[in-house]
Design a protein that fits this description.
The complex is a heterodimer of chains A (574) and B (278). By secondary structure, chain A is an alpha/beta fold. Helices cover 36% and strands 20% of the residues of chain A. Chain B is globular.
Chain lengths: 574, 278
């Protein structure tokens, strides 16, 4: 292990304050100089019901859940069995419950994990206005080694509006919890304390959905049309107030057909435009994506993938929209598909995708997923990047202006309404160079070539993939699965085994030359993806030459990949 | 182009493009094109500051026949694209156009929400009670007993959609009906509609001489200017209760808040990024 890490699951009924305690623990850990990741898991209830905050704290940045939880902390055991498959435990895991709730269900102890009951509710009652979740926060803070100063700072920030009395009772509750945990540590002989390494680095706390919103804003998007859908809504909810702050606009649409056509309208007007959705919404948008390709109007659609098909499993992650994103458009419709490989990378990939769509005047889909979108991560403040929307526009009064002129790059200057002399009709019909509709073979060939040329001749630099290490054995993956793959590789490296990582950020267009160069010297490959039908593997087979010795590790959602599964698979193949 | 040419007032001919429409000889849409160009000339807008947005269908070909910016998108989505354009670019004059199938069937949901959203733009529907581009099928405004379509040989058996009543109940702030046989009257309605602050809707009865030849009789039936307009919703609705669909004029006009988000750059990206710092 290269980093010291603790994984904690907090569960309880709705109203128990599970998520509040979880987020405060995460933020306090960040204040103390640690890193972390928090995934939410909840039942199908709209409000209330049982919920779990799945937290991993670490001395180094973390991108994925660990193999096991060290601590399960339950306020009331409420339906905890529903989460059992998401809570892998081992013999030295500790399951902590409230003495008032009695023993936990058997399923938690099959692993040999130990149960410890503490007087949670009773302790909270000893404090005026005391709440069990604050005592719980203290217990968990102490177990992970998060100091009281950091917890106090977060409480002050979070409870500012509730007044000094609420703050005082919360601090008292946390302190009491810490005392309970110290007794527990002594009693069962555990020490999970993390020792922060670099305290003075500025850290950000954000979800992948917020990061994607931030990315498109950095990239220059200033118009968004929104229709809510799980698990993408937070991208839109983050953009609503923040677009406004920089002079942009968000409009709530009546459906996804409207939202995508609205952003096409906004972008036709010269404003870089974006929307976010999930699988069912993307399916509704595909006709309009074809229009954006044909009329050469740049738009970006962020698809935060969930389990499919149809309504599927809306609150869980899967990578199964890859096929529709790549191949869902009718006709020959070359477009851009990108995918962030971590929560932090949601910023970069979203920003870069706005830049690409604008530069090439076409439709682009960003494939994020629920695991990235709805998890909260503590990251180092990312660098400010220079990628900003830069569309090639036509100046005023161009003689004999041709909107779809056959240029060498395939990109032709776009006249923006308000520009005299540039008046043209953007059209879903095939056109001549001058934008006049045409059903002639020559025009169709020319425009098809032009729209393809734009994408294939563009210089994507090194951003098309993350390539790490050099070895004869390569793991090829994409999206959120990159996190556990990366951790698996680093564990094997610690054991002396070298593995190459190739994680694709650009999925369309395919870049065979770059991919072949990346595969140089690779004789054995493992492909890891979160689908049932091996969509990524089939895409790679169609576009690239893979080594003869290639194995696929594919599993659908809802359960996340854990590094250990990948380590085992690589060891089996080595 | 020199500035002397720019300053000369544009006539309706300046708002027409050089392209010959695909429409059948005698189609009502020719006349609606004239009305739109006359209205734009009357309003004195600059060509570059105006956009005509459409979906799919015979009448949706209209943007190419004007000399302003145009957008010929996909079936049923003209209002969505027009809304996006106007909200993102409030400085432009935005006119959405299309037919009864495009606007009331596949685009019906957008019609309802455009009426209630009240974005400052104009929607002109050329209503001929038929799908012409696909060669003659019943549309939402077709009478229930029309049997001339191969698709519905027994008639649709479905009561027709009443565009003015729907617009009124969905909250449109300007509702009118025109007739292709009265290009000057329709031009006047379009001028008023564009001048209206908020969403304005005009149904223009526009005969299809090919698939609904009986509509050539409309010129004898239509009663120009007979609609008694009101700024009272109940009065407008009462008028519609006994209306046969062949009267023209402004039915309803009122002022209510226009959907127009404030665009003001108040923060730097740095300030926004700071909200993530722990």
């Amino acid at each position: 292990m290269t980093s010291q890490t603790v994984s904690i699951a907090i569960t309880g009924a709705g109203g128990a304050g599970v998520m509040t305690a979880g987020q405060m623990l995460l933020d306090a850990a960040a204040k103390a100089g640690l890193y972390g990741l928090m995934t939410r898991s909840s039942g199908p209830q709209i409000r209330g019901g049982e919920a779990a905050a799945l937290i991993r704290l670490s001395t180094e940045p973390v991108d994925c859940p660990d193999d096991h939880f060290d601590v399960v902390f339950s306020f009331d055991w409420m339906n905890i069995d529903r989460f059992a498959s998401e809570l892998p435990l081992r013999s030295n895991s500790v399951v902590i419950g409230d003495a008032k709730a009695g023993d936990g269900p058997e399923i938690l102890f099959k692993s040999g994990a130990r149960q410890t009951l503490i007087p949670l509710t009773q302790s909270a009652k000893e404090i005026e206005g005391g709440r069990p979740n604050m005592v719980g926060l203290g217990v968990l803070g102490e177990l992970a080694g998060v100091p009281i100063d950091a917890l106090t700072l977060i409480l002050e920030k979070g409870l500012k509006r509730k007044g000094p009395a609420a703050l005082a009772s919360s601090i008292e509750g946390v302190k009491l919890g810490m005392k309970l945990a110290q007794d527990l540590e002594a009693e069962i002989g555990i020490n999970l304390h993390l020792e922060p390494k670099a305290k003075d680095i500025t850290r950000w706390s954000l979800t992948g959905n917020e990061a994607a919103g931030m990315g498109v804003l950095r990239g220059g998007a200033r118009f968004c049309a929104a229709y809510p859908i799980t698990p993408a809504t937070e991208v839109l909810e983050w953009l609503a107030p923040n677009l406004e702050k920089v002079g942009g606009t968000l409009v709530q649409a009546e459906d996804e057909l409207a939202s995508v056509n609205m952003i096409i309208g906004g972008s036709f007007g010269g404003i870089p435009s974006v929307t976010a959705t999930s699988g069912p919404g993307l399916a509704l948008m595909t006709e309009a994506l074809g229009l954006a390709v044909s009329a050469e109007i740049p738009i970006v659609v962020i698809d935060v993938m969930r389990g499919g098909p149809s309504t599927g499993i809306p609150t869980k992650s899967e990578q199964s929209d890859l096929n529709i994103a790549l191949h869902g458009l009718h006709g020959d419709a070359p477009h851009i598909v990108t995918a962030p490989n971590s929560i932090s990378d949601c910023i970069f990939t979203a920003q870069w995708t706005i830049h690409l769509a604008e530069a090439m005047q076409t439709a682009a889909i960003v494939l994020s997923d629920q695991a990235l979108g709805q998890s909260r991560n503590i990251i180092n403040q990312p660098a400010d990047l220079s990628f900003f929307a830069k569309r090639e526009v036509a100046p005023a009064h161009v003689e004999d202006y041709k909107r779809y002129a056959l240029t060498k790059s395939g990109v032709s200057p776009m006249a923006i309404p308000g520009t005299p002399g540039g008046e043209y009709v953007a059209d879903g019909l095939e056109t001549q160079e001058n934008a006049r509709p045409s059903s002639q073979a020559e025009d169709h060939y020319n425009q098809l070539d032009k729209r393809e040329r734009k994408l294939t001749s563009y210089d994507y630099g090194n951003h098309w993939a993350e390539i790490e290490g050099d070895a004869e054995f390569a793991v090829i993956t994409w999206g959120s699965v990159t996190g556990p793959v990366r951790e698996a590789i680093s564990r094997l490296e610690a054991e002396g085994q070298k593995i190459k990582l190739i994680s694709l950020r650009l999925l369309s267009p395919a870049l065979p030359d770059k991919f072949n160069a990346a595969l140089k010297g690779v004789t054995k490959a493992l492909i890891v993806e979160q689908t049932h039908s091996k969509q990524f593997y089939k895409y790679l087979r169609a576009e690239y030459d893979l080594p003869k010795d290639t194995t696929v590790l594919a599993k659908p959602g809802p359960l996340a990949f854990r590094p250990d599964e990948i380590v085992k698979q690589i060891k089996e193949l080595s | 182009m020199d500035s002397a040419v720019q300053e000369k007032p544009l006539t309706f001919k300046d708002f027409k493009s050089e392209y010959k429409p695909v429409w059948c000889p005698g189609c009502g849409d020719f006349s609606v094109l004239v009305s739109i160009t006359k209205a734009l000339a009357e309003l004195g807008v600059k060509r570059e500051d105006c956009a005509v947005i459409s979906g799919i269908g015979c009448s949706s070909r209209i943007p190419a026949y004007t000399s302003v910016y145009g957008f010929h998108g996909i079936h049923g989505r003209a209002l969505a694209s027009a809304t996006g354009l106007k909200v993102a670019r409030p400085d432009l004059t935005v006119v959405a156009t299309g037919g009864d199938g495009d606007g009331f069937s596949i685009g019906g949901n957008h019609f309802l929400h455009a009426c209630r959203r009240n974005v400052d733009m104009t929607y002109i529907v050329m209503d001929n009670e038929v799908y012409g581009m696909t060669k003659g099928q019943a549309s939402p405004t077709t009478a229930a007993d029309w049997k001339d379509s191969k698709l519905t040989p027994h008639g649709t058996g479905v009561a027709p959609f009443n565009p003015l009543a729907i617009a009124l109940s969905a909250g449109a702030s300007f509702v009118a009906r025109g007739f292709a046989g009265d290009p000057n009257g329709t031009a006047k309605l379009i001028t008023e509609a564009i001048n209206h602050k908020g969403f304005s809707f005009i149904q223009v009865l526009s005969p299809c001489v090919t698939f609904r030849p009986e509509q050539t009789e409309w010129k004898k039936i239509v009663r120009k200017g007979e609609i008694v307009g009101s700024n009272q919703l109940a009065e407008a609705a009462t008028f519609l209760a006994t209306d046969d669909g062949f009267s023209t004029g402004v039915l309803y006009e009122t002022q209510r808040p226009v959907y127009a988000p404030v665009k003001e750059e108040k923060y730097t990206m740095k300030e926004i990024e700071e909200s993530f710092a722990v």
